[in-house]
């Protein structure tokens, strides 16, 4: 069943182009029209939405954080993202015009389920993004968008995360289409780029060998820091989470702009810092700011591991290791930027002799609050 791999996780990482393609399948027409059959929310209902609230846990929460950037930009609907376990305990403001999106791979996370029940009691419409057919969360939601990653056996979410991103983008683009916003150029271009993501992920997988070598060389590190900006910030958070759960290593992500407000004091000689560099398209200001961050930390001794789009020569002089990813539109960059981080955490954990399919103390679905 492991298809010749020693661990399911290794197989599941490699399956990602297929998982992404299957999640797009049948949903994107050649002319760019999107069809989301099981959404079960009529266009007139979608036009009335005044706010979106995304609830999720762990890796699914990171997908939600990325979705916020895309949805607000494409749809101009205010979008909040909250860890499900915090959500219902603070008396959140919800109403009929609020669309709640519950993201859960398993469809059984108790925290997410309780949050969605709470939202329904407040009359909000709930859309589930889920990988397991017929699981509790989609059954209790008004509509569902299934990710078609196939069964994920490894406890750490990999291919389901990439497909959650695809599902979130589809929801955002569909809302933009239905609401007639920015329809035309930008939305159509993005839909075309999204359809090409399976090949882009495949390209990344063909070039990750140096990431494995790098990971093995860091097996004795005590801490790894991750920096990102814009959608690269949740990607950094996801990289740190993978490292904690698989390699049992302390890891922390910061928004690169926050560095000077405190975390830069942590930088010392030899400290590995992974930096996710924003794509240059459309966000060149952020790109340049992060390049200065890389210079700053390197001047203080950090060992810089830089993930940047191919051909971005501006980062080369300050990168101890440069990991190149394909150039894609900024909002879609998390799909390609996450893959090297998954490989990094997995390989580092293997170098430490850990079981990457069954990390200690963790369960694949968390059915207690
Ligand atoms: C991390 C991981 C967990 C889950 C979280 C939510 O690799 O797997 O953080 O993402 O427990 O699970 P779901 O998505 O099933 O609700």
Automatic annotation (TrEMBL):
Q: What is its main location?
A: cytoplasm
Q: Where in the cell is it found?
A: Cytoplasm
Record bears the keyword Repeat: yes
Q: What class of enzyme is it?
A: transferase
Q: In this protein, which residues make up the domain named SIS?
A: 42-181, 214-359
* Catalysed reactions, semicolon-separated: D-fructose 6-phosphate + L-glutamine = D-glucosamine 6-phosphate + L-glutamate
The record's note on quaternary structure and interaction partners says: Homodimer.
State the function annotated in the UniProt record.
Catalyzes the first step in hexosamine metabolism, converting fructose-6P into glucosamine-6P using glutamine as a nitrogen source.
Protein name, UniProt field: Glutamine--fructose-6-phosphate aminotransferase [isomerizing]
Organism of this sequence: Thermobifida alba
Gene of this entry: glmS
Span within the full-length protein is 249 to 617 of 617
């Amino acid at each position: 069943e492991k298809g010749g791999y020693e661990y399911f996780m290794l197989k599941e990482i490699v399956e990602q182009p297929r998982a992404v393609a299957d999640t797009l399948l049948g949903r994107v027409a050649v002319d760019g029209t999107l069809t989301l059959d099981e959404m079960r929310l009529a266009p007139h209902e979608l036009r009335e939405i005044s706010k979106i609230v995304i609830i999720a846990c762990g890796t699914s929460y990171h997908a939600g954080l990325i979705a916020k950037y895309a949805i607000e930009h494409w749809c101009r609907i205010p979008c909040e993202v909250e860890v499900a376990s915090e959500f219902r305990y603070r008396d959140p403001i919800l109403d009929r015009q609020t669309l709640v999106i519950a993201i859960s791979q398993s469809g059984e996370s108790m925290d997410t389920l309780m949050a969605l029940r709470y939202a329904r009691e407040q009359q909000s419409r709930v859309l589930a993004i889920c990988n397991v057919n017929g699981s509790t969360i989609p059954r209790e939601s008004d509509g569902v968008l299934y990710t078609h990653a196939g069964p994920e056996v490894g406890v750490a979410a990999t291919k389901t995360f990439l497909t959650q991103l695809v599902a979130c983008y589809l929801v955002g683009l569909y809302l933009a289409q239905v609401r007639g916003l920015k329809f035309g150029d930008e939305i159509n271009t993005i839909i075309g780029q999204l359809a090409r993501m399976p090949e882009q992920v495949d390209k990344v997988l063909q070039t990750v060998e140096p990431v494995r070598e790098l990971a093995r060389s860091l097996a004795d590190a005590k801490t790894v820091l991750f920096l990102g900006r814009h959608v690269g910030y949740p990607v950094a958070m996801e990289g740190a989470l993978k490292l904690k759960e698989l390699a049992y290593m302390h890891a922390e992500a910061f928004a690169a702009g926050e560095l000077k407000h405190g975390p830069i004091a942590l930088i010392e000689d030899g400290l590995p810092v992974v930096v996710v560099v924003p794509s240059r398209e459309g966000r060149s200001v952020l790109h340049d700011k992060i390049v200065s961050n890389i210079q700053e930390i390197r001047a203080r001794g950090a060992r810089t591991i830089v993930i940047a789009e191919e051909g971005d020569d501006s980062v080369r002089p300050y990168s101890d290791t440069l990991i190149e990813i394909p150039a894609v539109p900024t909002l879609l960059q998390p799909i390609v930027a996450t893959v090297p981080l998954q490989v990094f955490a997995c390989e580092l954990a293997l170098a430490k002799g850990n079981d990457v399919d069954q990390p200690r103390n963790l369960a694949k679905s968390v059915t207690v609050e």
